[in-house]
Structures are given as C-alpha cells and as structure tokens.
Amino acid sequence: MSLKYLHTMVRVSDVDASLDFYCNKLGMVETDRRVDEKGRYTLIFLAAPDDEGRAVAERAPLLELTYNWDPEAYGEGRNFGHLAFAVDNIYETCQALMDGGVTINRPPRDGRMAFVRSPDNISIELLQKGAALPAAEPWASMGNTGHW
Predict the structure, then answer these.
(1) pLDDT band at 145 (very low <50, low <70, confident <90, very high)
(2) d(CA 141, CA 128)
(3) 121 exposed, middle or buried (CB, 10 Å; 0-12, 13-18, 19+)?
(4) At residue 78, does pLDDT exceed 80?
(5) Do 88 and 129 meet the contact criterion of CB atoms below 8 Å apart?
C-alpha cells in the first residue's frame, strides 16, 4: 500500500482574518485557490515557506482553509488537536506574533514549545527547530492564557 500525506483542512469563518494570521503573521504562502460557486465555498491552500517548492511540485504538505459562503457556527472541536510548525527562533516568532496582536496561549517557557490560536480558534503548536533555546525572560515566567 502506498500512502502520501496531502493536507490538513480547517474551516474558517473570515478569509481576510485567516490569511492575515496564517500568511502575514505566521509566514505561510498561498499556493492555490479554488472557488466553487455551485458548491458555495472557497478553498485556499497554504504552505510553510520551507515547503513551498515541494508543495507546488507534490501538492503536499499543505494547509487547506475551507471557507463556506453560508455562515455556520463551527465550535472548537477539541478532538481535532492542533497544527504544528517548526520555527527558527521560538522567542522571536512569539514576539512577532504578540506584536501583531496574537495571544500566546502557552508561552515558550522551555525554549522549545509554544501554542497560539488562529482567528477561528484552531490550536497552533510552534516548535523550536533543533535543540531548545536557553530559558529567557519574559517567557520563562509568563503564565498561560486561556487554553490551547
């Protein structure tokens, strides 16, 4: 049997807010967009910058944002879990997100892992590439905010 991971789909309620978060703040890149007027939905495919070439050539791995044109309440669906991304510097990434208005729900106290949420409350795990960074303030003493 052959198996290839393609993408993770999350439903979004506001395309502009979602693209601002995933692209402008998190740094993902839009690789494809499909509008289905008959089905009344839009699909937007995003890749992490390090995966962009591979995403275009292989169509994987991608994040698929699904926007259904007819409003619907999705809830949080905690059984979904989270999306995870490796970052070059966990502290710089979290500071940039905070500067952009994103709440750091679980700060990188350990220099390795943090959690934030998208505008639709999708839990996003950020992991330090390689070894954990040395503990540093303000992160080391920062408490959790909400849940992730």
Answers:
(1) very high
(2) 18
(3) middle
(4) no
(5) yes
The kind and range of the H/E element at 29 are: strand 29-36
- Token digits for 7? 């993408």
Tokens 């052959």, located at residue: 2
Q: Is the pTM of this model over 0.85?
A: no
Catalytic residue numbers read 125
Q: How far is CA 88 from CA 49, 50, 84, 125, 132, in A?
A: 12, 11, 14, 14, 11
Q: What is the largest CA-CA distance in the chain?
A: 53
Place of tokens 């059984």: 79
* Strand, coil or helix: 38: coil
Helix (H) / strand (E) element for 120: namely none
Q: Which residues pair with 10 in a beta bridge?
A: 65
d(CA 95, CA 84): 18
- The runs of H, that is alpha helices, within the chain are 15-19, 52-58, 90-99
| Structural domains of the chain, ranges and CATH numbers in brackets | 7-68 (3.10.180.10), 82-141 (3.10.180.10)
